[in-house]
């Protein structure tokens, strides 16, 4: 019997656990380690952040779900990886520290035969002074509890406007190197929708601020789509949505500092600006969670296993090259560590070989460019590929048997406003592939038959359907295997 340890129980980690439990759970030991007691369907945090869903509707208790399976769940956080064991025992192990209240602070050594790093990101609010809900002046929708607080503050603004007061809302990214523009994009439209429903939209100034070179970049270098027989770009698509809703926008911006009621930011031309606000939701930059790695003799090998960002190196080509020489082939396929064959990283935990968007920096040398998105559909796709490879390697395969390169997969994003069945709309976009491949698709880098955008109520219904489908699937209820990931 082998033991597979999975660090993290978000979309990617929980997906690996679900499939391994189904395929090899009776023959092998599966251990899931997560610092969080509850699973969170993060895309629906947007609706929690505007008061249209509760925290209970987007989360569930992990221990209760795993209790019905063969998975051994430990509520703890990963501290260090020891892929060569130590001087007393050559078997690889991880050190974890419990966050379960009854065992809080206790450390444990868990040996493994295979390790999957699916820790997700550290929400690096500290990279920008004054950013974030805990020690700063902005709110967030990155977790369900953050979204609850965001809605609490949003409703206070709505009440003030009902008394006749004017308010300024600023939503976007809180640093020059942020990713996840899509979440902020969806949130700004939901705030606009809520203010219209409350009858106070005329008293609100809404401003989008982001590190994108142009609207519609989304960290993917922008996108071209075919609509009504015409080729248009993501910039036109996104700007049209903003203009229709009277939303202002600021792009090419690095938020340097946030004070109470004032955002300080720098733009690509090197100039510095201030933007007053009454309510602001800014996505933080992401970083690795801080896992360390040690060899058998106890020497620190963190730099060998992880990139400087803290994300884990996998089978990508990390050779530094100028932007013009970047290739779709640089992106990982199997997510296996190049130095330890029983070590994998999926979701946000793997280190991308480089950006997807063109790298930019201001005249002051400040990087202002989106980081590559690695959430949602891509996370699930790479998790399933790794689970299949582990299943086959447990059965004797010498190397990973399945691949899921972001340069060979598509993704869909639905930005839906409101959760009512008949009131609301959605901007739906699909891209294929996620990472442009200009060798296969020389004109636009993507297959335009599979890359499109639509606006309307149908996408709104799809977002609701996906919410309930994925919650059902993640709870591993009967027939979950038949549902698409």
UniProtKB/TrEMBL annotation:
Domain of life the protein comes from: Bacteria
Required cofactor(s): FAD
Assigned keywords, A-Z: FAD, Flavoprotein, Oxidoreductase
Gene3D superfamilies in UniProt: 3.50.50.100
Positions of the FAD/NAD(P)-binding domain: 3-315
Coiled coil: none
Name of the featured protein: Sulfide:quinone reductase
């Amino acid at each position: 019997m082998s033991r597979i340890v999975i660090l993290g129980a978000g979309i990617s980690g929980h997906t690996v656990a679900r499939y391994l439990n189904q395929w090899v759970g009776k023959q092998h030991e599966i251990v899931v380690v997560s610092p969080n007691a509850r699973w969170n369907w993060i895309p629906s945090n947007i609706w929690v952040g505007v008061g249209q869903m509760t925290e209970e509707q987007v989360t569930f208790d992990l221990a209760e779900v795993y209790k019905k399976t063969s998975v051994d769940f430990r509520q703890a956080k990963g501290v260090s990886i020891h892929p060569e064991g130590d001087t007393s025992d050559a078997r690889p192990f991880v050190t974890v520290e419990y966050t379960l209240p009854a065992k809080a602070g206790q450390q444990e050594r868990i040996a493994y035969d295979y390790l999957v790093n699916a820790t997700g990101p550290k929400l690096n609010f500290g990279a920008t002074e004054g950013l974030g809900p805990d020690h700063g002046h902005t709110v967030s929708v990155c977790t369900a509890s953050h979204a609850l607080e965001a809605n609490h503050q949003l409703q206070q603004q709505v009440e003030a406007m009902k008394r006749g007061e004017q308010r300024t809302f600023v939503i976007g990214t809180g640093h020059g190197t942020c990713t996840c523009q899509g979440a902020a994009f969806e949130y700004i439209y939901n705030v606009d929708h809520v203010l219209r429903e409350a009858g106070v939209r005329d008293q609100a100034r809404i401003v989008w601020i982001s590190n994108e070179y142009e609207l519609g970049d989304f960290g993917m270098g922008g996108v071209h789509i075919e609509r009504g027989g015409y080729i248009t770009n993501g910039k036109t698509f996104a700007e049209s949505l903003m203009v229709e809703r009277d939303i202002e926008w600021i792009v090419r911006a690095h938020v340097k500092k946030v004070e109470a009621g004032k955002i300080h930011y720098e733009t690509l031309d090197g100039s510095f600006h201030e933007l007053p606000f009454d309510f602001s939701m800014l996505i933080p930059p992401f970083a690795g969670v801080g896992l360390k790695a040690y060899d058998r003799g106890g020497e620190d090998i963190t730099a060998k296993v992880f990139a400087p960002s803290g994300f884990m190196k996998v089978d990508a080509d990390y050779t530094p090259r100028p932007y013009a020489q970047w290739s779709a082939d640089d992106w990982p396929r199997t997510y296996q560590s190049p130095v330890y064959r029983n070590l994998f990283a999926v979701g946000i935990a793997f280190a991308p070989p480089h950006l997807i968007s063109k790298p930019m920096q201001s005249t002051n040398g400040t990087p202002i460019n989106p980081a590559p998105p690695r959430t949602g559909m891509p996370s699930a796709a790479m998790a399933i590929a790794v689970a299949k490879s582990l299943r086959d390697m447990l059965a004797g395969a010498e190397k990973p048997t399945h691949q899921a390169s972001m340069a060979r997969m598509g993704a869909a994003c639905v930005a839906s406003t409101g959760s009512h069945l008949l009131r609301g709309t959605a901007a739906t976009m699909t891209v294929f592939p996620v990472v442009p491949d200009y060798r296969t698709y020389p004109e636009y880098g993507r297959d335009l038959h599979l890359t499109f955008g639509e606006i309307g109520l149908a996408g709104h219904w799809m977002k609701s359907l996906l919410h309930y489908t994925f919650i059902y699937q993640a709870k591993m209820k009967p027939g979950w295997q038949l549902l698409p990931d």
